[in-house]
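Notebook entry, structure prediction.
Reason for the run: the old model in the group folder had no record of what sequence produced it. Starting over properly, with the input documented here first.
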Amino acid sequence: QVQLVESGGGLVQAGGSLRLSCAASGRTFSSYAMGWFRQAAGKEREFVAEIRFNWSGATIHYADSAKGRFTISRDNAKNTVYLQMNSLKTEDTAVYYCVLRPGGTWDYWGQGTQVTVSS
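New structure, fully documented this time:
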């Protein structure tokens, strides 16, 4: 079984930065994809970013809304994934979920951490 625990959420003013962390425990492998989703109040859950390592190196994908502002990184030795969020906007306000994908689907989810961006 896999457990994901997020931290680092909070309240920040627009234009500010936050760094989310997600520690994974249990059956985890560096080849599994890890990432972040978010869900704003009254909206559908949406993909933010993912990172995966294989023989050729790291593969990273971002949602268009995150490109240029968010950076995902991963420390495999610590089984931890990070999301550095800069130039935050009020529309980034959401609950952010850490996710892990052993295969084709995001099977494991954290409990979520609230990010609130004030104007």
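Summary: The CA atoms of residues 41 and 94 lie 7 Å apart.
The old model has been moved to the deprecated folder.
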